Amino acid sequence: QEFNSQLYIAPSEKLSVALIFAGPADPAGICTQIMQVLMESKGILSGDEPQVKLPPRTAAIPDTLPKYEGYYAGSGRIMKVEFDTNSNAMKASIYDHDAFGPAVQFPYKEDEYFHVDEIQKLSLAEAADGTRFIMAHLRDSTGSIVFAQEIPQRDPILSGSLFENKMWLPRNLTCYEFGPFMGISGVIKELPGYIHFDNAPYALTDEYTGAMAFSHARDLMESRIVDRDGEQWLEVRACLFSDASQTIPFVPGEKISIGSDGYNEWRRVETEGVFSTDTPTRGRVLVFSPTSELTYDSLMDGQKSVLLEEGSYVGFIGEPGDLFVPVYEPRS
Question: What is the pLDDT of residue 245?
Fold first, then answer.
């Protein structure tokens, strides 16, 4: 989430309006309305009806803009950006784990912006060092924020094979954390030298490490594969993940204990069936589908019996020494 602020001052009238927003907003537009109401209430401005402002019409894309075609990243997304001079629009295709999806078009208007909707519009900019950006503007605000930054080309000598087509299970979740998720990583064939983790691009610095390579992005952290007792784990920010393909099968009747390190325990379901278990005081149970969708969370859904699809992953969260005794009835 972005932070936005705006300050308007009318010194001779001893009036000021200040707004601070957490998240995307149009503080300039809101400030303008507040200041206008204040000045009208004091008789400084008349309350005449404003003139109707016609929306800008579609215009031809200038010859200087197609040089901005390429790949961009921002806010957890990777985009392929192209320009269609026939329809006079910017085309943006969003990457989703293994491919770029269908392009969304943003028409170019005579006000020299690409329009996303009635609120947001985009422009293109280039820094002194040659770095290119897509800038976002809200309504008539004079300010802008970086919407996406061009992804620089890299040496393709690093393959990223350790990250390729991998699903990752969280291992250090607590019993009260919201938003549990499985991570998905892979190589981006259109961008040699990069891998992605949940559609955020990382520049490979070696075969084990990906670094955020953008000057205008949040949470600039490494994603790094490390060895833990002969297994490959992934560290991203403060999160630890293990390779889902190495998860041991769930055995009906098995008692599952949380180890002294407190890491979450995971099992893979080989046969569809009905599952239930009592949870310790600070315990929690998660179920992810074979495609990484969260289908059950005892913190949110309460303790109950659930149907486990073949290939699902069941996670047990608790304190060191906590014991889970699942009841499992395979479907015949």
Answer: 95
